[in-house]
Design brief:
Shape: elongated
Radius of gyration: 32 Å
Order of helices and strands: HHHHHHHHHHHHHHHHHHHHHHHH
Strand content: under 5%
Oligomer: single chain
Length: about 500
């Protein structure tokens, strides 16, 4: 079975031209449709409206220039292709003589061959001459009927050789063009790093909108054309942004949407062949699976991510996430072994994180995971020690992530409750309960709900415990994920 032709292929153009001619459309109508449907420049659209190859157009332009007054032009396929693409990359500006000859050859007005982009790029003197030049009356178009449409004969001999060369020249012209430069790529990566860092301290919904807008810019660029290495860099940036949107969607309680973003991020990582991105995407997918209750998937994603050779701290986070899932499954030995591998990964770490921010595992974040795991496997004293260490480390970091800090305080409070210190739990939770609603994300409310479900069992039973339960319930009612879930028409794109 033959593969379908690309939009704008010769088959598409021929079919469009024949359909429109059969419907009684003029050459101008066909040229306009070629431009809008296949995103062509006006000169290219007029050539395809006639059904000419680049070399056929070159021959007619040369003939038109020699049959009238003024400068004679020796056109060839390569030159016509560059004139058509101007003022884009790897193009050549057509002179006035060329534009006049083109208009004569294509049986149109010179104004039909220029759009706003062309007019802005033309020298002012040339544009003045074009505007002031009196337009010749257009000859009446001959009537066109379906019976007058004949398919062009297949080329043979030297015509076939010339057509093949023309096709190669057209492809080479396309291949050498790019819609993005290295400076622009550097800027896009810088903006991605900023978003990943800002997420640690900013309101999530506002940052979601900014991240989505940058992702859309990258998708738009990828729909165009660039060198393969530039495409790979664009896929890397797009992958990190989709990963960031997945992380945000999960924190906002939209786990199905988070999974969709994670799959798209994985596709970008595969297309880029980028191991660090692969590992970070799998870390993100492990996080989403954990909060979705798919704990075996969370373990598998984390283990799969650890198989890639990476730089920076992603291996540390993957081991922490595996430990988190094992502890939730009640597998104490596996959980503690994974925590030990996180320590080994920290010691063996090389290089720096490419993006940073949410895509980094600072020591405080690692200790936060350790505290949560130790609580689940019944080691509250160790958990309290890890939580206290995490807070100390967090306070010396240049950026304090409010989500991580809140979870550390929750681990502190849980450890105090487990050791019968209800007053210590209330004190530990005070900074969490003071968070504004915009910062009350799903991991925080879920961890608080877990803590609340344990209140009421011995040794807790004091008035402080009752007040703590009430404060937690009120806190969770006013949270960003709850507001997003209750808002009509909301969704992560």
């Amino acid at each position: 079975m033959n593969a379908p032709s690309k939009p704008g292929s010769k088959a598409d153009r021929d079919a469009l031209r024949q359909d429109m001619t059969a419907a009684g459309c003029t050459l101008a109508d066909i040229a306009v449709e070629m431009r809008t449907r296949f995103r062509m420049r006006p000169r290219e659209a007029w050539r395809h409206a006639h059904g000419w190859t680049l070399q056929e157009a070159a021959d007619r332009i040369t003939q038109a220039s020699t049959s009238g007054p003024g400068e004679s032009i020796a056109a060839d396929a390569s030159l016509v292709g560059k004139w058509e693409k101007w003022p884009g990359p790897s193009s050549r500006r057509p002179s006035l003589a060329v534009l006049f000859a083109m208009a004569d050859a294509l049986a149109c007005r010179i104004e039909d061959l220029l759009d706003l982009e062309d007019r802005r790029a033309l020298p002012e003197a040339d544009l003045h001459l074009i505007v002031q030049r009196p337009s010749a009356p257009e000859p009446p178009a001959p009537p066109v009927t379906p019976s007058s449409i004949t398919a062009p004969p297949d080329p043979v001999g030297t015509d076939l050789v010339r057509l093949a060369a023309d096709e190669s020249a057209t492809w080479a012209q396309w291949a050498e063009a790019s819609n993005v430069g290295d400076i622009a790529l550097e800027q896009l990566m810088a903006e991605t790093r900023t978003l990943a860092s800002d997420y640690l301290t900013s309101e999530p919904v506002v940052l979601f909108v900014r991240t989505r807008a940058l992702r859309d810019r990258l998708f738009s660029l990828l729909e165009g054309h660039q060198y393969p290495r530039q495409s790979a860099d664009l896929y890397v940036a797009a992958g990190y942004l989709c990963g960031l949107l997945a992380w945000m969607s999960s924190d906002l309680g939209q786990l199905h949407d988070a999974d969709t973003q994670g799959r798209t991020a994985w596709l970008c990582a595969e297309l880029a062949g980028h191991n660090d991105l692969r590992a970070w995407v799998l870390s993100t997918r492990s996080k989403v699976a954990f909060w979705d209750g798919r704990l075996r998937d969370a373990v598998n994603f984390a283990r799969r991510g650890a198989t890639y050779e990476t730089t920076g701290t992603v291996a540390v986070l993957l081991a922490c996430q595996e430990a988190d899932a094992w502890s939730e499954l009640g597998a104490q030995d596996e959980a503690l072994a994974a925590l030990s591998r996180a320590e080994d990964a920290r010691a063996a770490m090389r290089g720096r994180d490419e993006i940073g921010g949410i895509f980094a595992c600072q020591p405080a974040r690692q200790e936060n995971y350790a505290a949560a795991v130790q609580l689940r496997v019944g080691r509250p004293v160790d958990a309290l020690r890890s939580a206290n260490s995490a807070l100390t480390l967090l306070h010396v970091q240049p950026v304090r992530a409010y989500g991580t800090e809140a979870q550390i305080h929750i681990s502190q409070a849980s450890a105090h409750l487990a050791t019968g210190e209800a007053d210590g739990a209330f004190e530990a939770l005070a900074p969490v309960l003071a968070l504004p609603p915009d910062h009350r994300l799903t991991p925080v409310t879920r961890r608080l709900a877990e803590l609340c479900s344990g209140i009421g069992r011995p040794p807790a039973g004091s008035t402080a415990v009752v007040g703590l339960r009430q404060a937690i319930e009120e806190f969770c009612l006013e949270s960003t994920p709850r507001h997003v879930a209750l808002s009509p028409g909301q969704g992560s794109a």
